[in-house]
Amino acid sequence: MNKTTTIIGAGVVGLAVAAELSKIHNDILLIDKNPSFGQETSSRNSEVIHAGIYYAKDSKKARFCVEGNRLLYQLCEESRIPHRRCGKVIVATDPDEEEILESIAEKALDNGAVPLERLSSKKIKSLEPNVKATAALLSPSTGIIDSHRLMRRYLSDAKKNGAQFVTQTMVSRIEKRDRGDYRIHVIYPDGDTDRFNSHWVINCAGLEADTIAASMGIDIDACGYRLHYWKGEYFSLDVPHGYIRRLVYPVPQVNHVGLGVHATIDLSDRIKLGPNAIYLPDRTLEYSVDNSARRSFYEAAVRYLPDINIEQLNPEMTGIRPKLQKPGDSVRDFIIEEESAKGLSGVVNLIGIESPGLTASLAIAKYVRALVEG
């Protein structure tokens, strides 16, 4: 079997890339090791449409988040994908944090995001009566989305353009052939093996993107491609409907290990608190929620939601993020690299695609298309 393009990984970014590349290639194979699409990081997150306000100026995260925010709202409106432009408030809970708000507002302007509105404690109380803050920023372009419906739309578009989607297929090795294309070796659930050839290989494997890169012969440590797993737990908050109308975020953590335990709403107005950030040095995919973390979640959230009590918190879900940083490291940008310089012409590696990957998915897909066409 020969394919023009093989995309490894059917998370939200792999699906978006498949939808975009299927406009120019009519022989695309999208493969994933799981029984269906989006079963790892893409389905275990806050489902937030981010505005692009936290990331370093001129970084891929900033650029693709700002562009992706606009493209995603446009797609949602055109395709009736459930979403809501609810907005977000970033709150300072004591005067010492207000200086951080100023730096966030400046970074948003640098990144070309929709400008943030500065809110006084009186104004925030009028907008969100149950939120306590000495000052806040309002991000009007932040929203929420049904991520499953989004992924289903991407897959539908790819299939309409002739792409083939194969599940429960694990890539074991990729070798470059003398003729310049690639032989992709796969393993099926029953242990049977197979192989096929592909001219283009697009690595969107998420949590295993570095493993796939290594299987091509890339030294992932020398290149800075090694991934580190971070677990993020969520607790639901049992409060009356409409308790908050916007997302509520504290000021972010140092080095963006996470954005702190924030309060998000879904499209049915249920509230989730989280995620925390737990480093997983052994890269174990373990999705239980530690109920003993309830106290720390409560103590984080009660700073800005002062009327809640700990009994209102219940374990909800866990996600695992593929970061390029381990504890103590500085924040890293997305890696999206066409690998001709490494002697692997026709390979595009996407590594460390964590948040804001969902928001940025359309913009990333267009960038990958430009790499392929260029």
Give short descriptive properties of this protein.
374 residues; alpha+beta; FAD/NAD(P)-binding domain; D-Amino Acid Oxidase, Chain A, domain 2; eight-stranded mixed beta sheet; five-stranded antiparallel beta sheet
What does this structure look like?
- With 374 residues, this protein is α+β, with helices and mostly antiparallel strands.
- It contains 8 helices and 20 strands.
- The strands form 4 sheets. Strands 1, 2, 9, 10, 11, 12, 19 and 20 form an 8-stranded mixed sheet that branches. Strands 13, 15, 16, 17 and 18 form a 5-stranded antiparallel sheet that branches.
- A hairpin with a 5-residue loop joins strand 10 and strand 11 (182-187).
Provide a brief overview of the structure.
The chain is α+β, with helices and mostly antiparallel strands and 374 residues long.
The number of domains: 2
In the CATH classification, which architecture of the largest domain applies? 3-Layer(bba) Sandwich
Percent of residues in helices:
25-40%
Largest sheet: 8 strands, mixed
CATH superfamily descriptor of the largest domain: FAD/NAD(P)-binding domain
What is the gyration radius calculated from CA atoms? 21 Å
Please write the string of helix (H) and strand (E) elements.
EHEEHEEHEHEEHEEEEHEEEEEHEEEH
CATH topology grouping of the largest domain: FAD/NAD(P)-binding domain
- What's the level 1 CATH class of the largest domain? Alpha Beta
Task: Give the structural class.
Answer: alpha+beta
Shape: elongated
Determine the strand fraction and express it as a percent band.
Answer: 25-35%
Number of DSSP strand runs: 20
For the terminal residues, how far apart are their CA atoms? 26 Å
Number of helices: 8
Low-confidence stretches: none
- What is the typical, i.e. mean, pLDDT? 96
